[in-house]
Design goal:
There is one protein chain. This protein is an alpha/beta fold. It folds into 2 domains: 7-106, Rossmann fold; 113-140 and 157-192, no CATH class. Helices cover 34% and strands 23% of the residues. The longest helix is centred in the C-terminal third of the chain and has 25 residues, at 167-191. It is globular and about 50 Å long. The protein starts with 9 loop residues before the first strand and ends with a helix.
Length: 192
């Protein structure tokens, strides 16, 4: 991806479904001088997403889309184009995007996943890692491809699973690392 300079930061949309803690860490990162991105749009599929409050707090435009409606992705693409978005970061976004959508933004969609991919794609990753007696889990930032959680890996962070860990405690430990990993992965993408 092209290098961004000062005022020419890459216009970015963050897609969320829930609390938005990764959104918040990306917004904070985007305010740093060294950051290659600016967060210009927040998109959610959930009207009750707590992350939408960050849009208000940081004065970032936000849009909510009902994914049950037909042709919704075309409307989202139009919104992204209208806002001159060149990068999409999925941050706890719980909908699967179509091949049509992914091809429209090929190589410009990143996602964070709470496991060491290719292990434990999909949902319930923490529980599955514990039940599988894994010694480590972690998180992965990767490019989005048409196959679920299968795109090219950008960065990963290992987290040790302790004997006392359950899905909740492991999720908390990994989330802390996600907040550090996503900004580092964005920096890496723009230095490629």
């Amino acid at each position: 991806m092209a290098q961004s300079t000062g005022l020419n930061k890459v216009r970015t949309a963050i897609f969320i479904s829930g609390k938005g803690s990764n959104l918040k860490s990306i917004i904070k990162f985007s305010k740093l001088k060294k950051s290659p991105i600016s967060v210009n749009l927040i998109i959610s599929d959930n009207t009750k997403s707590k992350g939408l409050e960050y849009g208000k707090a940081f004065k970032i435009k936000k849009k909510i889309f009902n994914f049950k409606k037909k042709c919704i992705e075309k409307k989202i693409i139009n919104e992204l184009k209208k806002n001159k978005i060149n990068l999409i970061c999925l941050a706890g976004f719980m909908k699967i995007l179509s091949n049509f959508f992914i091809k429209s933004f090929k190589g410009k969609i990143l996602n964070i996943h709470p496991s060491l991919l290719p292990k434990f794609k999909g949902l319930n990753t923490h529980q599955r890692a514990i039940e599988n007696n894994e010694k480590y889990s972690g998180c992965t930032v990767h490019f989005v491809s048409s196959k679920l959680d299968s795109g090219k890996i950008i960065l990963q962070k290992k987290v040790k699973i302790n004997k006392k860990d359950n899905a909740k405690t492991l999720a908390k430990k990994i989330l802390i690392q996600e907040h550090k990993l996503y900004p580092r992965a964005i920096l890496k993408v723009f230095s490629l």
